[in-house]
Design a protein that fits this description.
globular, 242 residues, DuOB_dom, OB fold (Dihydrolipoamide Acetyltransferase, E2P), Dual OB-containing domain-containing protein, 5-stranded mixed barrel, mainly beta, 45% strand, 2 domains
Length: 242
């Protein structure tokens, strides 16, 4: 596979059933998690017509989140730290290991980069979730543990309406970034955990504040259990104005 821009078409879902099967994903998130990284992507596959999105029965892109076998610890920096959003990765999957709403989790042998998706709306819009009217089932900043345990998804890719990037300081004087936006008529306000985008914001803070609809695409994720709540996070930002 070359590194040129890739035009996406559609394909039916291909479920994780075989042992040690190589899966291709578009990297849509590579954020902080418990001292490591949380990497996730949308599955694609090669067809006679080119590269296609793998979708489930509702037409939603199929997600894969490689995880370690040591519980909630993040992936090591040396393994995935060099990967960027929209890189095309091959994950050698060994087992599907769903945990509550984290049904996308898989164990793996290796991950490697084989290409990159072009950063444009033509490629990004087909990846968006058009099935869920609310983000992870409610209008709040988190879902309770009992809802998480019975959930069936924990990742979404959306184009937010009228996003606003906010920089705040915590009690220790550290910069913290949040993104406020509207989605299907509901207002949301989530913390940003995308490592590379945070660093970019720190170097050009003029990009904080109001943004136009269509400037940003967001990967959203449900975090791990925190006092019986799972908070909603912005795990990835693709900025078409950057």
């Amino acid at each position: 596979m070359c590194n040129a821009d890739i035009l996406l078409i559609f394909a039916p879902e291909n479920n994780l059933k075989a042992k040690s099967m190589e899966k291709q994903i578009i990297c849509m998130g590579n954020s902080y998690k418990n001292g490591g990284r949380c990497l996730a992507g949308i599955e694609i596959q090669n067809t006679a017509s080119g590269i296609s999105i793998v979708r489930n029965q509702n037409g939603i892109p199929n997600w894969i989140r490689p995880v370690m076998s040591n519980g909630d610890n993040g992936l090591p920096e040396y393994l995935v730290g060099s990967f960027n959003l929209l890189d095309i990765l091959v994950v050698d999957v060994t087992d599907a290991v769903p945990t509550g709403a984290h049904c996308e989790n898989v164990h793996f042998n290796s991950i490697r980069k084989v290409g990159r998706l072009g950063q444009n709306s033509q490629n990004l819009t087909p990846l968006c979730d058009t099935w869920h009217s609310l983000i992870f089932g409610n209008r709040g900043k988190a879902v309770p543990n009992e809802v998480f345990e019975n959930g069936n998804y924990s990742l979404m890719f959306i184009m937010p309406e009228s996003p606003v990037i906010i920089m705040q300081y915590d009690d220790y004087g550290h910069e913290k970034f949040r993104i406020q936006f509207s989605y299907n008529g509901t207002q949301y306000d989530f913390p940003l955990t995308d490592t590379r985008y945070i660093n970019a914001l720190r170097s050009r803070t003029k990009n904080c504040g109001q943004r136009n609809t269509g400037d940003l695409y967001l990967t959203l994720s449900l975090g791990v259990n925190h006092y019986d709540w799972h908070y909603k996070l912005v795990a990835g930002v693709i900025d078409l104005t950057a």
